[in-house]
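Aim 2, interim progress: modelling of the pyridoxal-5'-phosphate-bound target.
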Amino acid sequence: MTTVPFLDLKRQHEPIRKELETAFQECLDESFYIFGKSVEAFEREFAVYQGAKHVVSVNSGLDAITLAVKALGIGPGDDVVTTTHTFIASVLGVLQAGATPVLIDCERESLAIDPGEIEGAITARTKAILVVHLYGRVVEMGPILELARDRGLLVIEDAAQAHGGRWNGQLAGSLSDAGCFSFYPTKNLGALGDAGAVATPHADVAHRVRLLRNYGSTQKYLHEVIGGNSRLDTVQAALLRVKLRHLDEWNRSRQAGARYYRERLEGVVEMPCRPREADSSDHVCHLFVVRVKDRDKVARRMAEEGVQTQVHYPLPVHLQPACEFLGYPRGRFPVSEAAMSEILSLPLFPGITREEQDRVAAAVRRVVGK
Ligand SMILES: *Cc1c(COP(=O)(O)O)cnc(C)c1O
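Predicted structure of the complex, ligand included:
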């Protein structure tokens, strides 16, 4: 019996192998590996896709968050409110910019930042709200944008899991002062290595990210600010240009797969983080998460049934050893802490077959005894 893999990138790349090879060969011909023409071309094309005024590419999602926070003028002495139930990079970006992350709980139904908790976390030091579109579902932005406007705060989106997802017709990452993207290989839009980008409506913010990603310089050997090296490689930009053309079709495949799981597993397991929209446009299904009692045992039994699963994430940020210094005790965020031992991500990726999904659903039924 073959295993149902959690993810199979080979399957995703096989149909576009020729396109990827051609893009790579063009890079070899050009031989301009840093800031070659594909970098600007990808930024232009991703900006058009996003409906964003400016896109600046960087070398990872973490650097996208770090440089966006810095470029927005947020640093030491400033607070950024965000959720504890996320990948640690959301919080590390704030820390690397020198600012202080102020963590709040997630909401039970979506496992995303609890909008009801934001206002209570705002103080005179608060400069921004960092929203994470977790698992691919775009957060309901209306009330958050309104609160930010009323309180004079900036809004930043961590859109690392939500490329192509929409709220109110607009794309995740283009709903705020800065949208931060990761193109880590497993994301909905992934490079063949590390990559990231910042989308912003503000010309000055885009300019500062451009400076910060390249030694504080946009003109050779003239350094306006202290910067670092967070550049996107030409090769990755060229490959991303190819893959961007397939993003919508891959997202539709994820959405269809998620619908199929929901039909098969209704009443069998709890399925949080459902799409709000009937057409799922608000949810690009980066992950398909179910909620079960005895999760570790369920995961073990699923493995015995030949199904790979993962957990996103087994420990919220405030309980990570590295973040102990932030001073949040165990018990502080009960919704996240309850979720961490019950959530389980099932295989879902463009190209997963219905037969594989049937095997996953049957295994879930057997394991949970329904
Ligand atoms: C993947 C991810 C990141 C970090 O992206 P990298 O490219 O790995 O640095 C940040 N936030 C979230 C929510 C992610 O899923």
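The CA atoms of residues 291 and 343 lie 5 Å apart. The two ends are 23 Å apart (CA to CA).
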